[in-house]
Amino acid sequence: MLRGRAPVLRRYGFPQLAILVRGRSSSHALLGLLAVPLVVTGCAGLQPAARDWVKLQTSASTQYYVVRGRTTRAIFDAIDSNGLSDGKGRRAVGLTAVHWKLGGTLQSGPSSCDTASVTITLDLSVTLPQLDQRDGLSPDLEAKWQRFAARVATHEQRHVDIYLDGAKRMKTRLELALARPSSCAALQTTIQDIWHSQQAETEEDQERFHLDDEARIQTDRTPLQSRIDANTARLTAIESEARAADLDLEGLTRQINATSSQMEGVVTEMRQSAGASFECGHPQPGSLLQTLCQRYESLAAAHRTLVDRYKALVERRRVLGEEHTRLVETTNDLVETFNWTR
Question: Higher-confidence residue: 24 or 133?
Fold first, then answer.
């Protein structure tokens, strides 16, 4: 029988945002920068460079969940049972979680927000599968797992990179906004707009990567699936033909046995008619022995035909069996490759 194919596993979930307002948590506003009066000094006009107004702090950690199994089926069954799911409830092999924070201050001057300080904090957490107790795995399965785990890690690293790129673009956009003269109220609105829009763009980039990667996997799997389907159809045809051949062999066996019995009956009649030493080589024309000999020869010819058909069918059944065995092995290999192609 063909080995079962594990379902395609998906990933990507993003926790809700947590915003810091001067070190305090807020679940309602994405940004709450405080406006406080500016203490005017003789250096009030000397502003720091725009790039110094926005700081980006990032961190990334990696953790693992245990996968146990000694076969491909067992490994992916374990992933399905004990693996991850994203914020949309989709099953996941690996997962990258994100935690955004934004904090800072705005200080208003006589005509504009003269001083601004914004800090973007991006904390990323990557969860990857780790095969437990690998001792005893076949070299082939060990190699497949290593390649698979590396692909999962590469996939999640791409999600990390997308988040980091999004945070950098946010920093650049905020720097440009802070460099333009503006009231603190207008600037806060601009910062909130950038905060919302850049995160939305980053999530769109994540989803686009998700769809592109799924399309790539599907492209790799489609020819495998086509071959599996073709082989499965052929296996079904072989099994159907083999069952029909078995029924025909049973029927031929009954006919051969019946013909043999009839031939034995004719031989018995010959002995009763002409004695134990009868010969059919030159029977007397019109005699009972001639009639019995002709009947015997007819039965013998039918018997030979039945035996020849039986032998031919046995050979066909053998060929079908060998083809079935080869196809099962080939298809199982294809299914194995299909399961690891993700």
Answer: 133
Backbone angles phi, psi at 39, to 5 degrees: -85, 110
| Spatial separation of the C-alpha atoms in residues 278 and 285, rounded to whole Å | 15
Nearest to 302 by CA among 340, 258, 265, 266: 258
Pairwise CA distance, residues 168 & 163, whole Å? 9
C-alpha separations of 211 from 11, 70, 166, 273 in Å: 11, 31, 18, 90
Q: Which residue has the tokens 């010819």?
A: 301
CATH of domain 233-340: 1.10.287
Of 103, 104, 102, which Cα lies nearest the Cα of 117? 104
Give 30-80 pLDDT, tens digit per residue: 222 322 222 222 223 334 444 478 999 999 999 999 998 889 999 999 998
Lookup: tokens for 314: 């046995």
d(CA 75, CA 69): 5
In tens, the pLDDT along 146-156 reads: 999 999 999 99
Every domain range in the chain assigned CATH 1.10.287? 233-340
Q: How far apart are CA 320 and CA 249, in angstroms?
A: 14
Please give the DSSP secondary-structure letter assigned to residue 6. Answer: P
Q: Which residues of 214-252 are buried (b: 16+ CB within 10 A; e: fewer)?
A: eeeeeeebeebeeebeebeeebeebeeebeebeeebeeb
Rounded to 5°, the CA angle 194-198-202 comes to: 175
Q: Please answer whether residues 121 and 102 qualify as being in contact, where contact means their C-beta atoms are separated by less than 8 angstroms.
A: yes
Tell me which residue of 226, 112, 206 sits closest to 165, measured CA to CA. Answer: 206
